[in-house]
Amino acid sequence: MDMKRYPSDRRRLGVATSLAALTTALVAVPAQAQTTPNVPTAAPQDVPSAAVPDTDREAPAQDNADIVVTGSRIVANGFNAPTPTTVIGEEQIANNAQPNLFNTIQQLPSLQGSTGAATGTFSTSSGTQGLSSFSLRGLQPIRTLTLLDGQRVVGANVTGVPDISMFPQLLVRRVDIVNGGASASYGSDAVGGVVNFITDTRFKGFKANVLGSITTYGDDETALVQAAYGTSLFGDRLHLIVSGEYDHEGGVGPGNYGIDLAGSRNWHRASTLLNTGVTTGPGPQFIYSDFAQPYQYAKYGLINNGPLQGIAFDQNGTPYNFNYGSGGQPLGNGRVSNCFPGNSFCIGGDLSGAPGSSASLKSKLERINGYGRIGFDFAPDNEIYATVNIAQVQTSNQPSPGYNRPNLTVQCSNPFLPQLVRDRCAAANITSFNFGSSNGQLPNQLVQTDRDQYRFVVGAKGKFDLAGTDWTYDAYYQNGTTKVAIDVDRIVLQPRYVAATNAVVLNGAIVCADPAARALGCQPINIFGNFRPSQAALDYIMPQAGPLQRTTLRQHVASLNFSGQPVDLWAGPLSVAFGGEFRREYYRVRGDAYGAGVTPISPNNALYPADPLLNSAQGSNWAAGNYKNGTGKYDVVEGFLEVDLPLFNSDAAGRANLNGAARVTEYSTSGTIWAWKVGGTWNTPIQGLTLRAVTSRDVRAPNLSELFAAPTVTTLPSFNDPFRNVAVQVFQNTVGNPNLRPETARDTELGVVYARPDWLPGLSLSVDYYQIKLSGVVSTLTPDQIVRFCFEGNQAFCGGFRLDGPQGSNFVNVQPFNLASWETSGFNIEASYQWQRPLGLPGSFTIRALGTHVREFLVDAGIAGVAVRDDAGANTGAIPDWKWLATQTYDSGRLTLTVQERWFSDGVFNNNYVVCQNNCPVSTGNFNTVNFNRMKGEFYLDLGAAFNITDGISIYGKVDNVFDNDPTPSPQTNTGLDVNPALYDTLGRIYRAGVRFNF
């Protein structure tokens, strides 16, 4: 593989060239193009969602229209699916006025733990920065199947999850969210449910959308431009559609050192769980506090051990006595009195060197999306088609500033060291000391990702008659490729940094002490103050050819499905769906020579030349971003059968049906596995009242990352060593496991629907209980858990780490296994009411509310000695006890006003924490003792309005987070930013405005 680095603008040029035909077509849209009625996809009365109040207005309904409910493969008029499905229509999407459709869908209460541009910004090596992916029921994105027009989409990450930013969003007519297992109908990954984007495949005319937004703090400036054009030829038999989108989101951050956030945000307080290091009482082990100060390093350097401990250096390199918080005084052994040795913090004092606030709050994101579709009706109700979707998403974020180095050995003879300190060394009879620094004089690192996707689909769908009965078919082949480039700029090569800090005087000049390093360009740096190194020195410790990762993902899918009603029975037609699918998943990833360590390094390699200081075999020379090499693939062959059997249909008993499905799947990696479901609905004799139930066995096969992941290395700069009660730097080594087996889940849903009764036809209500038991979960323990359980005497955990080795050799190994089990249960609630001509005014008023209550989310690691943990209500995660979304919309036909409320309940940091002040029990890795364990929920208010200037032009505006609510602190046990963007809004109030065109 060509490892030559290339600038992002070359990548953009390649995608732009690929999109040229589509964009040319868009520019050439004739002004007289007219909109024609859309093919009806409105949610009918029988769609299993209690909240589709106004979707009948999205398109003119037809009495004989077939309704495809995403919760099932059955195609039938008026079919009731037992699995609850939420439908978000075009009007709701437009009213929410977001630059990315992902932002609208992820607000739904049943979606918990989704990832987007505001999550993952603190990470260097994850590769998920800016990746927009959904997580249903808190089961993580890898257990949610996301489809485009019922078809799979090639992944944008080695986990296999697609990026919603790459979908043709302007053409989306509705989104179906299946809140429950659907593996029997749709295949692997649908354990938590399905999110299916339905596009307008018969769009005619021209439409466009231009949106701009900015936060109240003057950042995250966003510009969105979307356009689509559709037409038909040859007597409405040939259909052409093209669309293009450009979205630029400026992002937020980074801040500065200490507690200085981006803009004028003032909510960061360095909230931390301070570890006393005492597990036997009488007080708690962890103390919650704001303004935690790391005492192992300072912005421009701090001597943190020995007789000179406590001497720091200001920006001019002048030594001074460091201002420890808590009234602390250095003890000469690396600890500080009145402070917290378990994670090396004081409270208050000099916070200027803390790097936590400097991570980006939201990644900068730029996406370009081009889409085209051509379809030909070769016979009535029969079409062959082809689609092409080419997209690029680029992101950048700053995980942390400078280079946090808490354990550098400095020689007293260093010529950059002030004479005063050298004299103190001589008086103390020492030749070196331990030194910690945030290296505020160094440039800040930058992580840039570039995802390019090329997706091609050919297919056929339609109807045919078989023995006097009507059947439908749907066949398609997809060839998808995603290329991902990750580049980390301005990051330190640790061995070279150490060599550059070790300076001596030679022939009257200050040089690097190591002659081998000097021969390869080592230039000394002054780490005692804000002295920016020379460009030659920066090029040596931070070479422009920094860490990189190049990944290629390929997906091939061939699918054929049939649906029909072969026979009429006593209570109605028997509906049947069956089909098969072949799928191949492949990935290949390559890292740079200094990070991967297995790529040959030679003097002839201009980007990564040989260097005796570096570990050429194992790599991991960078401070972060040590990407490794790997490859893997697997094949899937599967077939399914689904049947809907009418049980009875009468005025006295109502109407009931039984729905069942089975799918057999052969994985090349793990063999054969079955999925199934059995459910039914009963439209009771009570008008509008429907009961539904379903139970299913769902499966998820391990993804490419879990099976064949190239080892990834993450630097943990202040990891707590409980054996010596000190903080040390370690590498977390994460590797794949090719012996993993598929996960299996048992999903049970019971629900009641009361929709459109005669006495109040605008009303819809539903309540559904769910329970999911997931076995053989592919999961890992955290490095802290592994070390902690060994420390507490469980020898099974003691062979995979080292904490007391030489600098750069400490590590903790992490690997996934099929040991864990999860169990979650709760309720989904939907309610809506539509009032025509409210108070005599023209138009309609619609109220809609959706809520999810999670009773429990039990995580069992499946390892002896590890306690079960309940994550429901732990607001440091993504699963609050309660989460609600409510909207109120008035639509006069010309003016639309929208009010939206988002709320989630108060919670805790961790349900396994034991709160106590005195007489505390023994604090263990399973049940830590803490003095405080509460985390406030949040309420957000959003307001929007739209006005139709003409029939084809409308202007709109929206304000999100009207009250500019700050996030509640999510306390850390290290130096990270104390915030949880998976639940809380970290950006503040946002103003949006735009204009839409529809001709």
TrEMBL record:
Domain TonB-dependent receptor-like beta-barrel per the UniProt entry, residue ranges:
448-962
Q: Name one Pfam family in it.
A: Plug
Q: What is its membrane topology? A: Multi-pass membrane protein
* Subcellular location(s) of the protein: Cell outer membrane
Q: Which UniProt keywords are given for this protein, alphabetically ordered?
A: Cell outer membrane, Membrane, Receptor, Signal, TonB box, Transmembrane, Transmembrane beta strand, Transport
Q: Where is the signal peptide?
A: 1-33
| Region of interest (Disordered), ranges | 35-59
Which species?
Sphingomonas guangdongensis
From what superkingdom does this record's organism come? Bacteria
Motif TonB C-terminal box boundaries: 982-999
Where in the numbering of this chain does the TonB-dependent receptor plug domain appear? 80-194
- What's the protein called, per UniProt? TonB-dependent Receptor Plug Domain
